[in-house]
From TrEMBL:
<dbReference type="InterPro" id="IPR001972">
    <property type="entry name" value="Stomatin_HflK_fam"/>
</dbReference>
<dbReference type="GO" id="GO:0098552">
    <property type="term" value="C:side of membrane"/>
</dbReference>
<feature type="domain" description="Band 7">
    <location>
        <begin position="17"/>
        <end position="175"/>
    </location>
</feature>
<comment type="similarity">
    <text>Belongs to the band 7/mec-2 family.</text>
</comment>
<dbReference type="GO" id="GO:0005886">
    <property type="term" value="C:plasma membrane"/>
</dbReference>
<dbReference type="InterPro" id="IPR036013">
    <property type="entry name" value="Band_7/SPFH_dom_sf"/>
</dbReference>
<dbReference type="InterPro" id="IPR001107">
    <property type="entry name" value="Band_7"/>
</dbReference>
<protein>
    <submittedName>
        <fullName>SPFH/Band 7/PHB domain protein</fullName>
    </submittedName>
</protein>
<dbReference type="InterPro" id="IPR050710">
    <property type="entry name" value="Band7/mec-2_domain"/>
</dbReference>
<dbReference type="Pfam" id="PF01145">
    <property type="entry name" value="Band_7"/>
</dbReference>
Amino acid sequence: MTTSLIILAAVIILMAMSIRIIQQQRVAVVERLGKFQRIMHPGLNLFIPIVDRVRVYHDLRIQQTNVPPQSVITRDNVQVLIDTIVFYQVVGPEQATYGIFDYVLGVRNITTATMRQIIGNLELDETLSGRERISSEIRTALDEATEKWGVRIERVEVIDIKPPLDIQEAMDKQMKAERNRRAIILEAEAAKQDMILRAEGDKTSKVLRAEGDRASVELQALGEARAIADVAEAEKRRIQLLIEGGLNDQVLTYKSFEALEKIAMGPANKIFIPTTAVESLGSIGAIGEMLKATSGNSNKA
């Protein structure tokens, strides 16, 4: 009875040991008698206990590793401290297991060596302004090395570049002086723009005022010309109506005489009569005398 229980317990233990449940985004490298046998993927997996064993589990998600701050000397002999972070992903579990002892350590070491080589060819100003270039060159070097490790480099970021304290103070002073210079230039530019805008506004105002005065004079002259034309047209029309009404020069002269008579009744001491009016009046008088003579002869007969 006891032996049977032992055997049953051993069978249960072996069955439990033969079952492996792998979580999502994880894989397991299985060796059989010390030799690579297969990769177990997420889900339920069976394998032979004692004969097979899981060498290592790999996380297939994107991971990150911080490269410890490195003291690097630039081409102009300035020591700077650079902090870097690398994002990577295991894409070949077998190569990541057998290609290198510790791929994370390998990534850090390659990053450090490449960074020293890159910074050694750059001056301090180029180093401070060339983070993107440094990150790109480190990633290129890592891609070449990690391809056979089954590791893909997703991104390399230079987090911080710290120059020595005295250099930082000098840079701060330089930056402050540069900001003051830019502020002075901007203030001068603003004053210049203000003067220009004021001058342009004054010029535009004068031009508009002159154009308004000229337009006013032109309109006034046009109005006067039209008024004169209207008066002339009215006078022309009046004369035409007088002619059409049968008025000749003698009647007009007689009308002039009537007007002179009215003037003579005024306070004027002297009256100047036009020559044509005198001649016309003489003619009228001669006609009157002729009519009187004719009338006298008729009465005698």
